[in-house]
Amino acid sequence: MEFFETLRRRVSTRAYKRTGIPEEALWKILEAANSAPSAGNLQAYEIVVVRDPVRKRELAQAAVEQWFIAQAPVVLVFLANPPRSSWRYGRRGAELYCLQDATIACAYAQLAATALGLGSCWVGAFDEEAVRRILDAPTSLRPIAILPIGVPDETPEPRGRRPLRDLVHEERFRSSL
Questions:
Q1: Which residues, 6 or more positions from 44, have their beta carbon under 8 angstroms from its beta carbon?
Q2: Are 29 and 109 in contact (CB under 8 A)?
Q3: Alpha-carbon distances, residue 40 vs 79, 160, 177 (angstroms)
Q4: How would you class 137 by CB atoms within 10 Å of its CB: exposed for 0-12, middle for 13-18, buried for 19 or more?
Q5: pLDDT by residue (tens digit) across 121-168?
Q6: Residue among 27, 40, 55 at smallest CA distance from 116
Q7: With contact defined as beta carbons under 8 Å apart, do 57 and 72 qualify?
Q8: Farthest CA pair distance, the chain
Q9: What is the model's pTM?
Q10: Spatial distance between the Cα atoms of 160 and 157, rounded to a whole number of angstroms
């Protein structure tokens, strides 16, 4: 799929067929995430691949009962790794750069899934401590995004976007927000 077509087709999918996704497709998605730019090329994030039905249900519960997470055959959880960034960038690395690294990697994974004809939905509403506990993640890591991925069982319409004239500002803001 051509890149700009991928951008146009990316929608939030909240219903998945029971069909699994090929390992090769998952590997391509993970490689795309790994290719994302990061501060100082430190890649200050971790990705947990979740396939276990019980664990997926627990994640759905922790994500304010967004049960579609449990429907997806694969769920990726992106966690920021502040220590990996702070050794070089100090406080800014720990509080910002590692979060940016994790979100960019998740965005790349989401676009890769779309390019492969798969559906996904960025989930940011969840209890961080519960997600950390479900994954047995160290307290030094911070869950940033949950990305369920699967064969779509719905065809949502793309949602409207802000007009560029309201979103883009040449050199300074034209009016107060």
A1: 38, 80, 81, 82, 84, 85, 93, 97, 98, 101, 102
A2: yes
A3: 18, 35, 33
A4: middle
A5: 999 999 999 999 999 999 999 999 999 999 999 988 888 889 998 888
A6: 27
A7: no
A8: 51
A9: 0.94
A10: 9
Please report the domains of the chain, with CATH numbers, ordered by start residue.
19-153 (3.40.109.10)
Q: 102: which 2 tokens?
A: 């994790």
Alpha carbon of residue 150 to chain centroid: 14
Q: Are strands 142-150 and 45-50 parallel, antiparallel or unpaired?
A: unpaired
What is residue 149's predicted lDDT score, i.e. its pLDDT?
98
The kind and range of the H/E element at 36 are none
- Grouping H, G, I as helix, E, B as strand and the rest as coil, residue 50 is strand
Residues in CB range of 76: below 8 A, 6 or more apart: 29, 30, 33, 47, 48, 49, 50, 106, 109, 146, 147, 149
| Per-residue confidence band for 175, with pLDDT thresholds at 50, 70 and 90 | low
